[in-house]
Amino acid sequence: MASRAEAVAATRERIARSALRLLMECAYDDVTLADIAATAKVSHQTVLNHYQSKEGAALAAIELLRGETEALRTSVRRGDPGHAVEVLVEQYERFGDLNVRWAMSAERLGRLAVLLDHARAAHRGWLEDTFAQALPAAAAERRRAVNALHAATDVYTWKLLRRDLRLSRSETIRAMTALVRGVLPGDQP
């Protein structure tokens, strides 16, 4: 039999996962506390008891997303543009539509909009770490290269290729890899 603490943790997790599922399907403005409660099979008051608000439940959902994203990104082979793009496309296939919706509604997200700044900074940090050996040493050149890598690997680039231009997943990977290789000097694997 599960302890009270385990039951509470399981309920919190179920609510956060339900919020994430809804946010993956709908715009933030269209998700209600009642929707989250119904999806989690708990009462409206239970959601409030655990997260105090829709914003709190959304923050918990985004934390789950961040954890899954970090787990994917830690698997990348450093310095390998093709593998780095494959990992990113896998992430975007799972969460890209949510990321794009979230970014496009930033002005209506209030305090949650700061999460976009954190996500962009984390992506830049990941790019700098992943391609550290290939980046220019001079600060200005390095910054320009990281900016170009960011544009080549951003979720909007994935959306353009995959959703707007309707490229296949493999075509999207090839196009984004070509963009990344075009930024990096010399021969890359």
UniProtKB/TrEMBL annotation:
Pfam families hit by this protein: TetR_N
Keywords: DNA-binding, Transcription, Transcription regulation
PROSITE patterns reported in the protein's UniProt record: HTH_TETR_2
DNA-binding segment(s): 32-51
GO MF annotation: an example: DNA-binding transcription factor activity
UniProt domain HTH tetR-type: residue ranges: 9-69
InterPro entries: Homeodomain-like_sf, HTH-type_TetR-like_transc_reg, HTH_TetR
Name assigned to this protein: TetR/AcrR family transcriptional regulator
Organism the protein comes from: Actinoplanes aureus
